[in-house]
Amino acid sequence: MASAAATSSTATMFGSAAASDGCSRRVFVTTTVQVRASQSSPAFLRTSRAIKTYASCSNSSVVNEPQLGRWHMKLSIAALVTEASAKVIDGKATAKEIREEIAAEISKMKESSGVVPGLAVILVGERKDSATYVRNKKKACEAVGIKSYEVHLAEDCSEQEVLEHISAFNDDPAVNGILVQLPLPSHMNEQNILNAVCIEKDVDGFSPLNIGRLAMRDREPLFVPCTPKGCIELLHRYGVPIKGKRAVVIGRSNIVGMPAALLLQREDATVTVVHSRTKNPEAITREADIVITAVGQPNMVRGSWIKPGAVVIDVGINPVEDTSCSRGYRLVGDVCYEEASKIASAITPVPGGVGPMTIAMLLSNTLSAAKRAYNLE
Length: 377
Ligand code: NAP
Prior knowledge:
Layout: E1 11-20, E2 27-35, H1 42-57, E3 61-65, E4 70-76, H2 78-81, E5 87-88, H3 91-113, E6 118-124, H4 128-144, E7 147-153, H5 159-171, E8 177-180, H6 190-196, H7 208-215, H8 226-237, E9 246-250, H9 257-266, E10 270-274, H10 281-285, E11 290-293, E12 311-314, E13 318-321, E14 329-332, H11 337-340, E15 346-347, H12 355-373
Parallel strand pairs: 5-15, 6-7, 6-8, 9-10, 9-11, 11-12, 12-15
Antiparallel strand pairs: 1-2, 2-4, 3-4, 13-14
The protein binds NADP nicotinamide-adenine-dinucleotide phosphate.
């Protein structure tokens, strides 16, 4: 480990100490490089230049003490410690592939029957993150040929106003899917509003009627919630067998964990759900061939939780402080990627794993809604 910066035969390194910043992609080695040569000699100057160049390209920092011929370096040696054996399940590439398939299908549909699918989005209030999600959804719709309709209401609008817009979209045949961007302002009853979306246009799949059908044998939901649907799609497209396998879902929220567990069960996995009150989640998770995490706790699932060869789908998107990033934070999953990727056989990264699949599944649900509405299946 200590020879990484030996750029000249005159340089020696000593006093190394390794330190990791918790579960992250980087491990640092603090070391000192000392050059045994006169400060004006070519060897000294060459070594000095090489150390500065190395530091600038490798995210390392260096404190120079030229009068003593010494450089104290904090070397970032990510490359040495992040060797992973797991296959990366690439959600970004898979989502792109799916969007291209959807665009091709919509183009054919338009040509043969003149039908253009429509998605309506209702945004209430001024939350920047919600506005960004809505903008991204609109862009994704346009890129595949789905017409988008948007209503943006003020933060202090009434619940009745939102319900009236939903009712108008329910009656509009050009609109095949309706999405109410969550969260809603606190003075509104989210359940009343989501229940008002008719089941045939519930492309988010959050209606109790859709979830109820998902939970029942021999019943088919009209729509499956987009994020868990994206998780299962990734397993399918990467050829991961589900039938008869042990699966653990960590998290039981209505929008991710619970429907993910129902979907795995429909595919004949034996499913255990781990939540905040579960005793010894580590031992339970270690029994799983397939792990889906939707918790919201950065790096909670460590390598020791993973059975060798398991497949890991990490839904979590958690910002953690990182002053080396221009925005001051980076996104990590619920799973400690560095550790788990050495033990699992396949794993989704964060970002670039489940995230891009969510919008792709929304487009897929909207296309299904249009096909169903026009009997094109
Ligand atoms: P949520 O509604 O807060 O649910 C979190 C779940 O995790 C709960 O069921 C909770 O258990 C469980 N939990 C919390 N702490 C735990 C612990 N220490 N041990 C075991 N279980 C624990 O969150 P969510 O909406 O499902 O989202 C989860 C994560 O997924 C977040 O990071 C979110 O940003 C991300 N997400 C990503 C996408 C995407 O497109 N990729 C979409 C949605 C969400 P209890 O039920 O006992 O409280």
